[in-house]
Design brief:
91 residues, rod-shaped, mainly alpha, single chain
Length: 91
């Protein structure tokens, strides 16, 4: 339900004028309850209404993953028993 706030305020003003012109206390209380209900509608409408939000345009993101290990060529490992360290079977 989308009621404009000015319509509700105008209706509240009309009910207030009727309450002022009433001589009976019961009628005045009835108009005041009507005004209270209109106030609650305005407050509830403000809670449920979501602000107008402009959609944000997504920009593509590039994700770079480095899964490899860096091999730095260098001096060969020399073992005491004469193995050069190139083979995994060198003990």
């Amino acid at each position: 339900m989308n009621i404009h706030i000015h319509t509700l305020l105008r209706k509240m003003g009309e009910e207030l004028d009727r309450a002022k012109s009433s001589s009976n206390e019961a009628q005045v209380r009835e108009k005041i309850y009507t005004i209270k209900a209109l106030c609650e509608v305005i407050l509830a409408e403000g809670e449920t209404r979501t602000p107008d939000v402009q959609p944000i345009q997504a920009t593509p993101t590039i994700v770079v993953e480095n899964r490899g290990t860096a091999i730095i060529p260098g001096k060969k490992l020399e073992m005491e028993d004469g193995a050069n360290g190139d083979s995994i079977f060198d003990f």
